[in-house]
Each structure stands twice: as structure tokens, then as C-alpha cells.
Amino acid sequence: MTETAVETAPKDTQAPEATLPEALGAQRIGALLAERLGVPVTADDVVQLVELKHLEVADWYKRWALYSTKDALALAPELVKPLVAERTAWQAVSITRDEAVARIGWHWRDIARMGDEGRVKVGRFGRYLTADIDRLPLEAEGERHVTGQLAAKELEIRYPTDLRYVETAGWLTPVTTMEMPAGTSRYRTVTVPLYRLADVRAVREIPGVDWAAARNLPKGVPSPLRAYAAKAPTRADTVRAFAQALADQYGVTVWAWSSPYTGGWEMDWERRDGAPTKKDVTARLKADAAAGAYAGEITLCPAWGRITRRARQLLKPGAAVVLDTETTDLYGRTVEVAVVDAETGKKLMDTLVQPEAPISEGAYWVHGISDEDLVAAKARTFDKILPRLRKVTKGRVICAYNEVFDRTVVTNDAKRVGKWPMHLDDPANWFCLMESYATWLGSGRWLALGGGHRALGDAKAARDVLVEMAAGRGTTFTPQTAAAQAVPGLPALDGLSPASLPSQATGETAGA
Q1: Could you tell me if 117 and 143 are in contact, meaning their C-beta atoms sit under 8 angstroms apart?
Q2: 180 Cβ neighbours under 8 A, 6+ residues apart
Q3: What is the pLDDT of residues 208-242, one digit of tens each?
Q4: Four-residue CA torsion sign, 358, 361, 362, 368
Q5: Which helix (H) or strand (E) covers residue 300, if one does?
Q6: What is the pLDDT of residues 323-352, one digit of tens each?
Q7: N or C: which end of the chain has fewer CB atoms below 10 A?
Q8: Helix, strand, coil % (nearest 5) of the chain?
């Protein structure tokens, strides 16, 4: 018998190398490069490689960019290592904004402003050079911006009463403002004036002021600072006189407002035949012997003035309506719609609508309208109420508190039921009260309406906002030599002399 030798291959004792995905995210790519090159490559380094065009986005996973694994591993070490060294070196001598705040106790806005002005070096990742941050308390402490409360604390006087005296005396003026939340609402803000700390400290050096007698006074005790405020020249009287003279000369309504946000005055006037242009008023202001001295502190034609003039146009007879809807869900189907006349507030339409879809629980807790309510009221479908809606809004500007929302809801419903929205679909036919009101107030945030979340109540509340904007800001000056143009919806202000208005209606601050 012949023996046959069978040769077998030796067994491979090493595990096969894992196959890498074709593309990975920045963190995984950084880890691979760190393992391969022996340096601490991070996702930030990968992003910089992309910015420098050494890597490209190969794919996306949700919102995360993916990069080619093959291309990343093919990068030359002499390309990657210097980037890592540069990053680590920068991070060793720099700190984040929050770390800078904790380090020197400044507000983050002041630190960011120093960076914007080039006083502090700002590098990659929004980090600040530590050495520059450490110099700020020594070299720029006086350039910090502080609130009125902190200014009063620095002066050891009462806030806001005694600080108003300091402003009225002309010793201190805000340099800028900031928005802060008002109360517990997430949407309402208040604009707070800010003062330069060096200016506050300079007030303490004003000669002849009995600061010892003014400091730490209890509530109710008169302050000696009041006497200085009483002696100060009144910029407010000068500006008011100019506004009244402007109203008399051109026969137009003029609004003048002492803004607590800027510390200056803002002025606008109605536009009609014979009304002056901005150029005319600017020239007249400069030529005025008294008011000309304050020309640099008076802003003509502010944003709120444009909105006030537009609001007055919308309150004219037949010019506009105010519309509001309630829906099954956010941008859902209409369950209630109301329209009121902008001039009079008269109800033109108020009806429940059968959406032919269930009302969401969240929407129910907002407006309180249930599916059962619609059945009990025998609510009609949208195609049945659309003709009336088109009729009461035809030829008028449609005002809505949230114009984008209401316009989208009614046009979507019209198309859903196979009807043509006609003028309801054109954004040019609509006017957003919410955006206009935020600008008119000087707020950058969405402002809740507070109308009860039923269509008719919200429509009437939105009209109230329109009337408020049409009244202008501050004091209304009407011609004393000619009858003022009557504006519907504004009985409270038109025709009153400035002297007859209560002090709170003037919108002034003590620094006026």
C-alpha cells in the first residue's frame, strides 16, 4: 500500500483586519488619524482639513457630514501634524468666552465687544487670548457697560429715583442698550439702557456736589441731587417746542418721543400733501436757534414712525380688515375664523368651521374647541364659508397678528376643498401686525397677543394693537392754527394739546 503525504497549510493565528466603512464622521476620522500618526487629531482638525480643501464631504448621515476614509488615511503626515500642533498651541494660550467671564468677572457682552473692536485677540473656535483677557481689568475696566442698577450702586445712590436726577442734570447718558426678559414670559423683553463705567465714576468727581448727603438715603427722604436736576436746561421743552412749531407750520400731526433706549429723541410726522420731507425737517432743525443744539440727539423718521403712518392708513374707512383663525393643529385646518372691520371693530364674520379632520389635543387645550362642539353647532365645511370670507376681505388689506400663519391656513384650506383662494393667496394683500408691533416697540422677540385664543377675541385684540400703533409714540402734537386731520379709532390723542396729556403719555425719561 502506498502512503500519500498530504501537505496542509499552516493556520493563520492573526485575526483578519476589520474592514473600515467607506465614509466616517469627523470624530471617527480624527480617531483613525490619531492612531495612525501618533498625534491627538480631533474633529476640529478634520473640519480645518475640509476648510483647507484637503478633505471633502463624501456623504451625509442626517445632518452630520461624512468624509472618505480612504482619502483621510492617504493624507500626508507633514500636512496633518502641523495643524494639530497649531491647534494645541492655541488652546494652551486661549480660553473660551465662558472661561473669560469666570476669570475676570465681566459680562460676556463686554468681552465680545472687546473682541469685535480688536482689543482682544479672537482665534479659532471663538477662543480669546488669555493674556489679552487678563489685561482688560487693568487697561479697560472703565469701558465696561453697566445697567442703571449697577450705576446707582457704584454711586451709592437710590435706583431709579436718584439716578434719574443724575441723568436730568446732564451728568450721565446711556451709551447703548440691551434686551432682557420681562417678567416670566419667554416672549416679552424690555430694552435696558447701559452706561459706560468710566462715565459713572466720573460723576463722582463732579465738584460742588454733596455726595455724602446723597448716598444711602432711605426711601422717601428727598435727595439733594433733585436740586441739580431742577437747574439743568430742559432739552425736553426745546424739542417739544420745535415739534409744535413744525405741526403749526405745515398743518400736520407730529409725534415726538424721548427714547429710554438711546437717551435721545425720536420724531416723525404724518405724510400728506404739503407735508415736509425729511430733508425739509433736517434743514429746519439745523436752522432752529434752540433745537439746533440738540440736532445730533434727535432721530427723524425712526422705524416706529413708518409703522404708525401705515397703521393710520389702515384705520381709514374701508381700508382694511383684521382676521384670525383657530385650527386643528399648528398650520392645520381651520376650525374657526373671524373678521372685523379695522376702522370700527365691527364684526364682519365669526363662524366655526368643520375641518373634516380631528382636532389635536394640543390645539384643544389652546382654543377649547372640540370635535363635539363643531358637530353640535352644525359647523359648515370650509368650501361653504369661503365665499363669505372672500367677500368681506375683497379689496381690503387683510391684517393678521401672525400673517404667515393665517394666510397659509386659509389658502391651504381653499386649495384642499378645490377652490381658488383668489386675493387671499397674495402676500401683498396682507399686513403682519406681530412683526410691525415688535418693530414699533423696539423689541426683537415675538410678542404674545393675549386675546383669549378664540378667533373673534383675537381679531379684536389684534385690532387694538393696530390702534395703539396708529397713535404714535410719545406726545402727539397737532396744529394749533388749523384743525387736525381726524383719524378713526384715535379719539384719545388727536386734538389734545401737549400740555393736556398726562406725564406718562409723553414717553419721556428723566434724561430728556
Answers
A1: no
A2: 189, 190, 191, 192
A3: 888 999 998 888 899 999 888 877 657 788 899 99
A4: positive
A5: strand 298-300
A6: 999 999 988 999 999 999 999 999 999 999
A7: N
A8: 45, 15, 40
